TrEMBL record:
Domain N-acetyltransferase positions: 8-204
Region Disordered, annotated ranges: 189-210
InterPro entries: Acyl_CoA_acyltransferase (IPR016181), GNAT_dom (IPR000182), Trichothecene_AcTrans (IPR052523)
Source organism per UniProt: Saxophila tyrrhenica
A GO term, aspect molecular function: acyltransferase activity, transferring groups other than amino-acyl groups
Name listed for the protein in its UniProt record: N-acetyltransferase domain-containing protein
Pfam families: Acetyltransf_1
Length: 210
């Protein structure tokens, strides 16, 4: 079901959205030196994103949410579902491991993906969980609540799966906590750091802690 935010629709991605989705990182994170370092905007990387999104849309382990204005994708949130009984669908590695990395990717990305999967296993162990791999909103549309609507929809997906949400962020820890959607900091050594591991507990574990 689509959610309407003025003239912006939030829904699950379809194959026709992919061309527009491949540009979301340079459009959303043009000022983020690290993301542009590991995901440079090159034809090879765009082709890689096309293959990644195509595979994800076809896989039951992934949900891709998009914010769309007319025919243009202006926001993307990707979710990867891990269940112990369905580990063969993608383990804990997430969307960036669906297609082999290219020579245009920086080697730092491979290291970051391994660390992310390790933290996911260490913190949530064998709990069913959804990982937010990517959240990006076109810079021209930021500060309008679109990212928050995508995250809220992700929460609804997680609740329907009785799953927690896991994510790692380099800069947006305060953003997720400010949304007041049940996110908590986990495994954080420096409480003042802008990034870290964020978890939204599953409905079952939240009820159990009350």
């Amino acid at each position: 079901m689509a959610t309407l935010l003025d003239d912006i629709v939030i829904r699950e991605a379809v194959t026709a959205d992919i061309d527009s989705m491949t540009m979301i990182i340079p459009r959303a994170y043009d000022a983020d030196a690290f993301l542009n370092f590991i995901f440079p905007d090159t034809p090879t990387i765009r082709d890689w994103w096309t293959k990644v999104y195509t595979s994800a849309i076809q896989s039951p382990a992934y949900t891709i949410l998009v914010a769309v204005e007319e025919a243009t994708v202006i926001g993307v949130l990707t979710l990867h579902l891990y269940r112990p009984e369905n580990a063969h669908l993608g383990k804990r590695d997430g969307i960036c491991t669906l297609v082999p990395l290219t020579d245009d990717h920086h080697q730092e990305l491979k290291k970051a993906l391994v660390e992310q999967a390790s933290d996911r296993q260490k913190i949530l162990q064998e709990q069913s969980n959804l990982m937010i791999d990517l959240l990006g909103v076109d810079r021209k549309y930021q500060s309008k609540g679109i990212g928050g609507q995508l995250v809220k929809r992700a929460g609804a997906v997680a609740d329907s799966e009785s799953a927690a949400i896991f994510l790692q962020t380099t800069q947006a820890k305060a953003y997720y906590l400010k949304l007041a959607l049940g996110f908590e900091v986990r495994g954080e050594d420096d409480p003042n750091a802008p990034g870290g591991v964020i978890v939204r507990p599953s409905p079952a574990s939240s009820r159990g802690s009350q």
